């Protein structure tokens, strides 16, 4: 009876496993939802207990992946990774070949310490703008960008989830975990071979049609672009408040600047501390009716120069030189600007700016109006708004985000949440670099368990202001990936309990065992690669790592060799656009077709198979 029950559970396990893989391959349902449904199926069929099924959510690998998303976001937000891209044109000069190689080297270097998806998302707009400036098609650069980002997953332990998954499995089975740089030799070999291949085929296999690239996809109206559009640099003035100025203690409501001087107070700059940042900052207050002027304040005022001088003369203020680009200081950790568009049924239509009570309702100032490309920055009080108008608002980022969420009258252009995060992290690239270096040192020298080192890095990114707050940290976690890993890990437990793992590993040994450990490694590598073209590298690693482990133990071979083989194969996602999120990202932006991935990626798969079947046993002998 017990044997029959076990056979039934084994059959059900393979049915659930097959259905899960099929669902992944069809890609009609989100991968994380598929994984959760599979998890529930194991519980309902009594193959796994609830505790066994939910054990993945407490796994250190899952927590480490979550922490790495936070660290990667800090690197992005501070502009640390972007600095590398900005140096590309400077170093490459007019050489397209030099630019191509430098781009791929930088992508590989950046991708060694953050997710390949984050790397591609960061570099894609830079690559598109560089390609256009060099009169080259972005489609010539974006596919190589995706491929090298995938290969960069082999550069360090934290560069991709499959590395972390196979390392944890080694620990769970009583073997030594992978060191931080243990996979690096394989990664360097893969990177060199990949770059050489892409250089050789770039003018043969890669599409190079200007009209295929959707160059304005993903356009974002950043605060800096808004400042330039509205020409705020030439209409912004800075005034210093001396100790004996007559204006001290007066509120803006008392001063009546718009009525008396046709001026708009944008910001008050005051020495103080801002937030919980560990570094000295300045306090910046949005200028509103209740704002009170203090001695030594710096006032940022918008208007005509003669009106500014009249204000300074009346109250004994000192006009100061505005440094070029200082208008960018209108954007800070707490304060920002954004453009909002009136919707077709907006209640703002045909209302004047003064009748809206915008400042009272939304705690934001209206500082400009854009109507069909004409900018109105003065005497806006009696100006009637029309459908299609864009309003420039200024105030706290939190209030701008609230406006975006809670009103149907306007649509906020761009991504204020992202811009707020970038503004908060401006100037902190060095801090982010130091945190990343500290995390790498802690992991390399195994001062703490790897998950603790990553969590330290993630927390420091928040405390130092590289990320704006905890909400910013959570919003940058890819919960689809996190849930996918956590929900898929117990599948290995189900295969183990029912004996399915032994059957699969023995099947591979029966077919390829006559060729020795090398033949079995080739078989596992090829199976992993094939499945990896249709399901995520994370899910692929979760499925095949335990099978490879059992096969290695059964053949008395080195399990580390087989684990590295699985991690490497899982990163070789080149032949289809659904093989990796990075491929999907560049497909639209580069205007690629499905066959472009087959044409360029399939030969690369063959080349990498030959190279890796030599490199893996060389660096990790059987």
Automatic annotation (TrEMBL):
<keyword id="KW-0813">Transport</keyword>
<protein>
    <submittedName>
        <fullName>Di/tricarboxylate transporter</fullName>
    </submittedName>
</protein>
<feature type="transmembrane region" description="Helical">
    <location>
        <begin position="31"/>
        <end position="49"/>
    </location>
</feature>
<feature type="domain" description="RCK C-terminal">
    <location>
        <begin position="325"/>
        <end position="409"/>
    </location>
</feature>
<feature type="transmembrane region" description="Helical">
    <location>
        <begin position="141"/>
        <end position="159"/>
    </location>
</feature>
<feature type="transmembrane region" description="Helical">
    <location>
        <begin position="479"/>
        <end position="495"/>
    </location>
</feature>
<dbReference type="InterPro" id="IPR031312">
    <property type="entry name" value="Na/sul_symport_CS"/>
</dbReference>
<dbReference type="InterPro" id="IPR051679">
    <property type="entry name" value="DASS-Related_Transporters"/>
</dbReference>
<feature type="transmembrane region" description="Helical">
    <location>
        <begin position="100"/>
        <end position="129"/>
    </location>
</feature>
<dbReference type="InterPro" id="IPR006037">
    <property type="entry name" value="RCK_C"/>
</dbReference>
<keyword id="KW-0472">Membrane</keyword>
<feature type="transmembrane region" description="Helical">
    <location>
        <begin position="5"/>
        <end position="25"/>
    </location>
</feature>
<dbReference type="Pfam" id="PF03600">
    <property type="entry name" value="CitMHS"/>
</dbReference>
<feature type="transmembrane region" description="Helical">
    <location>
        <begin position="560"/>
        <end position="580"/>
    </location>
</feature>
<keyword id="KW-0812">Transmembrane</keyword>
<keyword id="KW-1133">Transmembrane helix</keyword>
<feature type="transmembrane region" description="Helical">
    <location>
        <begin position="61"/>
        <end position="80"/>
    </location>
</feature>
<feature type="transmembrane region" description="Helical">
    <location>
        <begin position="447"/>
        <end position="467"/>
    </location>
</feature>
<dbReference type="Pfam" id="PF02080">
    <property type="entry name" value="TrkA_C"/>
</dbReference>
<feature type="transmembrane region" description="Helical">
    <location>
        <begin position="179"/>
        <end position="200"/>
    </location>
</feature>
<feature type="transmembrane region" description="Helical">
    <location>
        <begin position="422"/>
        <end position="441"/>
    </location>
</feature>
<feature type="transmembrane region" description="Helical">
    <location>
        <begin position="600"/>
        <end position="620"/>
    </location>
</feature>
<feature type="transmembrane region" description="Helical">
    <location>
        <begin position="515"/>
        <end position="548"/>
    </location>
</feature>
<dbReference type="InterPro" id="IPR004680">
    <property type="entry name" value="Cit_transptr-like_dom"/>
</dbReference>
<dbReference type="InterPro" id="IPR036721">
    <property type="entry name" value="RCK_C_sf"/>
</dbReference>
<keyword id="KW-0677">Repeat</keyword>
């Amino acid at each position: 009876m017990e044997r029959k029950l076990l056979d039934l559970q084994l059959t059900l396990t393979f049915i659930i496993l097959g259905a899960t893989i099929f669902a992944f391959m069809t890609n009609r349902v989100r991968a994380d939802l598929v994984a959760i449904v599979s998890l529930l199926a194991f519980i309902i069929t009594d193959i796994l207990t609830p505790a066994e099924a939910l054990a993945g959510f407490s796994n250190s690998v899952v927590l480490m992946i979550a922490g790495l998303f936070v660290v990667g976001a800090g690197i992005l937000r501070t502009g640390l990774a972007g600095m590398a891209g900005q140096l590309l044109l400077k170093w490459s000069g007019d050489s397209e070949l030099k630019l191509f190689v430098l781009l791929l080297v930088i992508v590989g270097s950046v991708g060694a310490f953050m997710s390949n998806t984050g790397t591609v998302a960061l570099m894609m707009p830079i690559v598109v703008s560089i390609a256009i400036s060099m009169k080259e098609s972005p489609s010539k650069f974006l596919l190589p960008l995706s491929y090298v980002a995938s290969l960069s997953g082999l550069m360090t332990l934290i560069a991709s989830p499959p590395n972390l998954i196979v390392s944890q499995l080694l620990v769970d089975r009583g073997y030594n975990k992978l060191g931080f740089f243990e996979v690096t030799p394989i990664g360097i070999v893969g990177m060199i071979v990949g770059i050489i291949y892409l250089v050789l085929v770039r003018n043969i296999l890669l599409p190079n049609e200007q009209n295929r690239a959707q160059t304005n996809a993903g356009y974002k109206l950043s605060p800096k672009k808004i400042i330039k559009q509205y020409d705020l640099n030439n209409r912004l003035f800075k005034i210093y408040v001396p100790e004996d100025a007559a204006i001290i203690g007066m509120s803006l409501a008392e001063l009546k600047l718009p009525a008396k001087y046709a001026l708009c107070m944008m910001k008050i700059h005051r020495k103080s501390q801002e937030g919980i940042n560990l570094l000295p900052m300045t306090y910046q207050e949005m200028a509103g009716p209740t704002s009170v002027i203090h001695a030594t304040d710096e006032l940022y005022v918008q208007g005509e120069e003669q009106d500014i001088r009249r204000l300074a003369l009346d109250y004994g203020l000192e006009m100061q030189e505005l440094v070029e680009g200082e208008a960018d200081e209108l954007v800070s950790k707490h304060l920002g600007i954004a453009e909002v568009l009136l919707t077709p049924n907006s209640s703002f239509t045909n209302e004047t700016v003064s009748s809206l009570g915008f400042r009272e309702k939304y705690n934001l100032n209206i500082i400009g109006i854009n109507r069909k490309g004409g900018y109105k920055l003065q005497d806006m009080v009696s100006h009637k708004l029309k459908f299609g108008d864009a309003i420039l608002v200024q105030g706290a980022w939190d209030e701008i985000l609230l406006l975006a969420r809670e009103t149907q009258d306007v649509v906020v252009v761009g991504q204020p949440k992202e811009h707020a995060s970038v503004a908060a992290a401006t100037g902190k690239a060095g801090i982010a670099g130091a945190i990343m270096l500290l995390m790498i040192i802690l992991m390399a020298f195994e001062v703490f368990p790897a998950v603790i080192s990553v969590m330290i890095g993630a927390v420091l990114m928040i405390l130092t202001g590289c990320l704006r707050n905890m909400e910013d940290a959570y919003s940058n976690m890819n919960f689809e990936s996190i849930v996918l890993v956590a929900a898929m890990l117990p599948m290995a437990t189900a295969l183990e309990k029912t004996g399915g793992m032994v059957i699969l590993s023995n099947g591979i040994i029966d077919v390829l065992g006559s060729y020795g450990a090398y033949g079995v490694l080739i078989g596992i590598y090829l199976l992993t690669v094939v499945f990896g073209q249709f399901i995520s590298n994370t899910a692929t690693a979760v499925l095949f790592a335990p099978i490879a482990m059992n096969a290695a133990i059964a053949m008395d071979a080195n399990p580390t060799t087989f684990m590295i083989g699985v991690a490497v194969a899982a990163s070789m996602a080149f032949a289809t656009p659904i093989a990796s999120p990075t491929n999907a990202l560049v497909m639209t932006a580069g205007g690629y077709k499905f066959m472009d991935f087959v044409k360029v990626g399939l030969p690369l798969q063959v080349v990498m198979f030959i190279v890796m079947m030599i490199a893996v046993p060389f660096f990790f002998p059987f």
